[in-house]
Amino acid sequence: MSIGVTLRLAEFISSFKLDDVGADILRKVKLHILDTLAVALSASGSVPVSRVLDAIPPDISSGSSKVWGRGIRLNLFHAVRINGIMSHTLELDDVHREAKLHPGAVVIPAALGLGEYLGVSGRGFLGAVIVGYESMIRIGKGVGAASHRIRGWHATGTCGTFGSAAASSFLLGLDAVHTASALGLAGTQSSGLWAFTSDGSMSKKFHPGRAAESGVLSAFLSKEDFTGPTKVIEADDGGFFKAASDEYSYDVVVSDLGREFYLLDTEIKPFACCRSMHPAVEAALRLRDSINVEDIASVLVRTFSVAKMQCGFTHHPANSVEAQFSLPYAVAVALIDGEAMVEQFSDERVHDKGVQELAGRVEVVSDEQFDAGYPRKWQSELVVYLSDGSKRSFKVTHAKGSVENPLSDEEMEKRFLHLVGNVLSRKEAEALKGAVLGLEHMSDIRELLKFL
Q: How far apart are CA 328 and CA 311, in angstroms?
């Protein structure tokens, strides 16, 4: 009898050793840990985070787990959930293109929260993050990103439970059978619907936090022999893939498992909006210096169908959430401001009449040529029509921050300091950076938490 997909993934998780990976993976995982912490710290004082904290009844909030950037401690599950929400609030968290999900916002809060609770070493934490990323990304790729998304699912939430459960099972030292059971319990909690775009609600920010919390809970339950389905990915009746997609592949989950690491394909986002919008935003920034904004008659965005579906629904966003998913707004604000960072997607900037007026002249259309390359390539072309009848155009095949077009070390340093600047001093920021880059030498991960 052959071993099922879920159990094969569980065997990889339970048997993984940090010594099994090369220096490139070790460097990459530390880069993503540092970036996720910076993004989270930048959002630590935001309205969504504050509202989630306010919603927790005082009598169930006490604990020893740190809420990053807030100077307070809660019980493990609340802290993991809030840190996950914090990591996703600004839409600047890392992304895997073909899996169409944000692994850092789920895996790192889960691994660091549970690692803090257990007092694991830096090496243990690094190993947990690697298996968490790998599990979450492989399931995201395997379920079929386009089909899963078109059905209305948000993969960061639905696949994130598996990533968190993988990291948590690794930290708790579960064997393969118990890890498979934890994955099963995580899968039955998979959730995350895209309905937030209908009214600009905060629910999308909730998804990674809930996924992180669910995965940690699943590992604890499995450790005490509360069993979950050990074929949760591939079961004929109620298996995650069949339930959540029309186009899926079990082979993607297990092919070259332990030899090829998709963490290396995970991207850093330079702009504070949905990654599907980045090619068009980058094109706008590249064209900006060659035109006068006052001379723009209209703008055409050619992009792939998924981008049009999820980011072409409004020209006039009512709040920052809608703006983070409005291609017309993002292109307009990039053309006017020459930037597309957190400030450009604030509620105050969103209501600027000049930006809203230009956004009303931006048309978004899907292009079959770009659909043919999706999800391997996320492409867009921007055409700016000027009042004198001339036009300017620019096509982006690989957006900035992608594996093919990565941010430079200088750009990463500037991004890091910009993000943490409202929470940490320059000295504190450098101390945090040094701690993350030296994680493999840290005997207790709680040492890292003092920098947060």
A: 8
Q: If one looks up domain 5-269+431-449 in CATH, what number appears?
A: 1.10.4100.10
Report d(CA 269, CA 278) in Å as an integer. Answer: 8
pLDDT band at 2 (very low <50, low <70, confident <90, very high): low
Q: Quick one: which of 364, 318, 324, 328 has its CA closest to 344?
A: 324
Q: Which amino acid is at 365?
A: V
Q: Is pLDDT at 185 greater than 70 in this prediction?
A: yes
Residues written for the chain: 452
Closest CA to 87 of 115, 107, 62: 107
Residue 164 burial by CB count (10 A; 0-12/13-18/19+): exposed, middle or buried?
buried
Dump strand ranges (E) for 20-140: 65-67, 72-74
Could you state, in order of their start, the residue ranges of all structural domains in the chain?
A: 5-269+431-449, 275-396
Question: What DSSP designation does 67 have?
Answer: E
Tokens of 100: 């169409």
Outline where 44-103 has alpha helix (H): 47-55, 76-88
pTM to 2 decimal places: 0.95
Residue 106 to residue 290: CA distance in whole angstroms:
40
Fold identical between 5-269+431-449 and 275-396?
no
How distant, in Å, are the alpha carbons of 27, 107, 157, 436 from that of 263?
Answer: 11, 12, 18, 17
Q: Could you say which DSSP state residue 387 is in? A: T
Does the domain formed by 275-396 have CATH 3.40.50.300?
Answer: no
- The model's pLDDT over 162-182, given as tens digits with 9 standing for 90+, comes to 999 999 999 999 999 999 999
Q: Say what percent of the chain tops pLDDT 90.
A: 95
Find residue 301's DSSP bridge partners: 364, 382
Nearest to 161, CA basis, from 116, 205, 113, 105: 105
SS3 of 343-384: the string is HHHCHHHHCCHHHHHHHCCEEEEECHHHHHHCCCCCCEEEEE
Note the pLDDT tens digit of each residue in 256-314: 999 999 999 999 999 999 999 999 999 999 999 999 999 999 999 999 999 999 999 99
Q: Angle at the Cα of 215 (from 213 to 220), degrees rounded to 5?
A: 95
